[in-house]
Amino acid sequence: MHMRKSNSLNNTWALLIAAIIAYVPANLYPVMTVVSLGKSQSDTIISGVIYLFAHGDWPLGLIVFVASVLVPLLKMLALLYLLITVQRKSHLRNQTRTRLYRVVELVGRWSMVDIFVVALLAALVNVGAVATIEPGTGAIAFSAVVILTMFAAMNFDPRLIWDYQGEKNGNAKPTR
Amino acid sequence: MSIPELPIAVGTEMAACHECDALHRVPELALGATAHCHVCGAVLARNPKGGLDRPIALYSTALILLLLANSFPFLTLEIGGRQEVSTLFGASLAMYNAGMGELAVVVFLTSILAPALMMVSGLYVLLAVRFRISLPGVRLLLSWIGHLEPWVMLDVFMLGVLVAFVKLGNMATMYTGNSLYAFLALILVFAAASSSFDAHLLWHKLGLPGRKT
User: Does B75 touch chain A (CB under 8 A)?
Assistant: First the structure.
């Protein structure tokens, strides 16, 4: 048995809005810059996925596309939907919404894959003048998105979904 | 007027589902059985096969593998005759050297520190309960293990290794190091350890405390 998460709705809203704001620079700024023989080339999250597809590695490209583009977007939308339905005291499809919450909590961490790729590339490609790879500002913003949405999901109390199912029967509403 | 007695049978305990607050009477579970909430389907309690011995063995193995994964080269890259060797820690270090301390902390936490803390605290609690030693902070640690779990990203890191392999494959030759194999084994053993570890069972064995989380 656990205590209710205090201030769940406000905290989740704050973290989610911060994540949505950070999502903009996360996609606009490069996550890394490859400097090779005097030439430099910057990669954003999206262009990194396109690179994988273009080089014929579409299964891996698909996984990375899902993990770093689809998951953060859908996660933020799902949390938005859960917050709004809870605030409108909806008692519809409680089971589906609880399941949605469980999926959101489970898959969020996979978005971190891009940060690990940048870290590994930066660690490996440091071969003097031949080539270097530097992480970019986009990487900080992107990892902020992932961490903020993870905290947002942790702060959301799924029991809020179930609080209003008894209301139509005249049962007392639990205090929050 | 006397207070009506609650109909709780001996050997059962009341539990509120942590996802929807529905009250349940959780019966003694058969070995390997799992109790789900009848309203929302969340897992209420498990009685994993292997009891406490299996997670103890698996977490110890995982701890050794984590040490191995940090002691040898992880990946080696070769461009134009030059070799660059990286360890597991090297990924965090590279972020730090590039002036991105925040990211260095994130990478270090999710690939090394969180797994290590989880194994050590898991073992501490498991051994204390298994051998009935009263150690300080057992309850506190047990309540924190659940919060630590989402930050263990060994499997996500491995996907990152695969992507890095493909991205560099065109411009350089990559070699796998011994640490990478230890890391692969670590992912499997850690996953097995986590699924054989059940906090509810440990709370049950710890008995009713003065304060509960």
Answer: yes
Shortest CA gap B155–chain A (Å) = 9
Using the beta-carbon criterion (under 8 Å), do B94 and A143 form an inter-chain contact? no
Residue corresponding to tokens 């971190």: A112
Q: Which CATH architecture has domain B50-206?
A: Up-down Bundle (1.20)
**A125 with B162: Cβ contact below 8 A:** no
Distance CA B88, CA B74 (A): 6
Residues of chain A in contact with residue B150, where contact means CB-CB under 8 angstroms, are 105, 108-109, 150, 154
- Domain spans of chain B? 1-47, 50-206
Chain A residues close to B95, C-beta within 8 Å: 118-119, 122, 135
DSSP state of A167: G
Render pLDDT for B20-57 as a digit per residue (tens, 0 to 9): 777 877 777 777 777 888 777 777 777 777 778 899 99
Q: Which residues of B touch A48 (CB under 8 A)?
A: 167
State the average pLDDT for chain B. Answer: 83
More confident residue, B63 or B133: B63
Which pLDDT band, with edges at 50, 70 and 90, does A60 fall under? confident
For the beta carbon of residue A11, count every other beta carbon within 10 angstroms.
17
Whether A117 sits inside 8 A of B77 (CB atoms) is: no
Phi, psi of A33 (to 5 degrees): -125, 125
Burial (CB count within 10 angstroms: exposed 0-12, middle 13-18, buried 19+), residue B10: exposed
> A140: nearest CA in chain B?
B103
Per-window interface: B 137-176 vs A, CB < 8 A: 147, 150-151, 153, 156-157, 159-164, 166-168, 170-172, 174
State which residue of chain A sits closest to B93, comparing Cα positions: A123
ipTM value: 0.84
> What's the token pair of residue A166?
């008894």
Other CB atoms closer than 10 Å to residue A54's CB: what's the count? 11
For B199, the closest chain A residue by CA position comes to A1
Q: Residue ranges per domain, chain A? A: 8-164
Rounded to 5 degrees, φ, ψ at A136 are: -110, 175
Residue B13 pLDDT exceeds 90:
no
Q: What is the pLDDT of residue A4?
A: 72
Q: The dihedral of CA B176, B182, B183, B189: what is its sign?
A: positive
